[in-house]
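Long-time lurker. I teach an intro course on protein structure, and each term I like to show students one example going from raw sequence to a predicted 3D structure in token notation. This year I'd like something fresh instead of my usual example. Would anyone be willing to generate the tokens for the chain below so I can use it in lecture? Attribution to the forum is fine with me.
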Amino acid sequence: MINQQNATTKNVFTVDGFVAGAWRIEGRKLRIDPFAPLPLRARREVDAEGQRLRAWCLS
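-- Reply from a regular --
Happy to contribute to a lecture. Here you go:
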């Protein structure tokens, strides 16, 4: 999760307090890459929060 050359980290998201995946902005889209399949409830919550994050990043 940490780049040893310049100590940067990936953008990550959590589910129930545990790091569950990474995210990034590609153009005007938010890409969410879970480390494992997410339960439907968690996926909906991550998607909703991701849309709020995307709007903030692109504002």
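Some talking points for your students: Residues 12-57 form one domain. The mean pLDDT is 88.
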